[in-house]
User: Which sequence fits this backbone?
């Protein structure tokens, strides 16, 4: 994916850099597979306690990507997940082929039956955003790791 999707960071001068890319069918049955992949990847990277938040925002973003894809394409489309950890920053990027942009409704409260996912992403991440691409878009979120988690 293009480096312009996320805010620029200088190359890591210490610590480790990790990358993971996964594609899966845009169907609800892919969710457990993607969650499992995320959990195992973050464990292998020794992300530590922040892994719960990363898993949560990944799950919300992928759930949205699958729902948006299913709403506009016949079965067979893919969603993609890119995870990166570098210079103390954990990035989650989720691609789908739907050109519509996410709409975050800030007023969705605890009792709302829907409209809470992006609020969770916003609460858990340091920043999130979306980038329109030819043939789809990427919704991304980033979380800064503490020194201990990043080392
Ligand atoms: N990847 C996406 N592509 C297109 N539209 C999206 C995408 N993600 C979110 N949206 C739009 O933004 C709205 C808000 O998303 P959000 O995750 O906050 O709530 P929700 O998915 O409707 O409900 P919940 O996540 O609480 O089950 C969605 O209803 C959808 O219209
Ligand atoms: Mg949602």
Assistant:
């Amino acid at each position: 994916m293009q480096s312009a999707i996320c805010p620029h960071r200088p190359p890591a001068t210490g610590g480790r850099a990790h990358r993971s890319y996964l594609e899966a069918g845009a169907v609800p049955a892919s969710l457990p597979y993607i969650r499992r992949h995320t959990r195992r990847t973050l464990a292998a990277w020794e992300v530590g306690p922040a892994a719960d938040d990363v898993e949560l925002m990944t799950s919300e973003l992928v759930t949205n990507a699958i729902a948006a894809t299913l709403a506009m394409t016949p079965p067979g489309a893919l969603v993609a997940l890119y995870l990166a950890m570098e210079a103390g920053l954990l990035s989650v990027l989720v691609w789908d082929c739907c050109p519509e942009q996410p709409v975050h409704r800030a007023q969705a409260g605890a009792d709302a039956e829907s409209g809470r996912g992006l609020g969770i992403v916003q609460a858990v991440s340091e920043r999130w955003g979306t980038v329109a691409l030819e043939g789809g878009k990427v919704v991304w979120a980033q979380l800064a790791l503490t020194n201990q988690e990043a080392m």
In short: The chain has a mean pLDDT of 89. The pocket of magnesium ion (ligand 2) is lined by residues 60, 63-64, 117 (CB under 6 Å). The longest strand covers residues 78-86.
